[in-house]
Specification:
Elements lengths: L1 H20 L4 H14 L4 H13 L9 H10 L10 H9 L16 H14 L25 H11 L7 H9 L9 H6 L13 E3 L3 E3 L1 H11 L2
Antiparallel strand pairs: 1-2
Helix pairs in contact: 2-4, 3-4, 6-7
């Protein structure tokens, strides 16, 4: 009887471990990612899913892991309350040591961070070719470009002029992710405008780690966005 009880307990334990390992399978993550990106297409993870993973998932398997995309995407304040994030958020709140909760895209900036860097760069150098990707100003409520792809804009702007101070986050992201295309690789530059205009840069000031934005641009943004 004791032997049977021990075996039964062992079987229950193994079943629990198996269930834990499959608590957020890649198939569900893929479904959730589709839902997330249908409503918040401007998220950096949605840009990666569309521009990188559609054709280059075998080149960037870690970055195209749907669980990593969901965990990283749902950590972005712009997405944290989205219904598609409920499962991964619940799992990582209740079981933070779960394997799924350590899957990340290292160094990926938030939607707000890339948007603010885009705005800063194109305020300083409006003639840069890639300023056409996300023209104008970001949303006056979220400070995020919501009708374009701000991560792609950021990548292309920094490919044009990688020495800009606003590209510090881009450098970190690219270094941590094997110069992922089309945001970081030289090959991507050939597929998008690559000439670098040389308007004189305006003086700038630090902007809370999001990038660098000119002091004068802060006043312009406040006025333009209605603050």
């Amino acid at each position: 009887m004791a032997k049977f009880s021990f075996a039964a307990l062992a079987l229950v334990a193994l079943s629990a471990l198996s269930a834990s390992a499959q608590s957020y399978p890649a198939s569900q993550a893929s479904t959730d990612l589709t839902s997330l990106c249908s409503s918040l297409s401007y998220l950096p993870v949605c840009s990666i899913q569309k521009l990188t993973c559609t054709t280059m998932s075998s080149t960037y398997p870690s970055q195209c892991n749907p669980i990593a995309l969901m965990h990283t995407g749902c950590a972005d304040p712009a997405a944290s309350s989205n219904a598609a994030c409920s499962t991964i958020n619940k799992l990582c709140t209740s079981t933070p040591t779960a394997t799924e909760c350590s899957a990340n895209i290292t160094g990926l900036p938030t939607a707000k961070a890339v948007s603010m860097n885009d705005y800063s760069i194109c305020y300083q150098m409006p003639m840069m070719n890639s300023c056409t990707i996300c023209p104008g100003s970001p949303s006056n409520t979220t400070l995020i470009y919501q009708s374009c792809d701000p991560l792609n804009a950021y990548g292309q702007l920094c490919l044009e002029m990688p020495g800009m101070s606003q590209c510090a986050n881009w450098q970190t992201f690219c270094s941590a992710n094997s110069k992922i295309a089309p945001y970081c690789s030289a090959a991507a530059a050939a597929a998008s405008p690559s000439s670098s205009p040389s308007p004189s840069a305006k003086s700038d000031a630090s902007f809370n780690g999001v990038g660098v934005i000119p002091a004068a641009a802060v006043a312009i943004m406040v006025a333009a966005l209605g603050f």
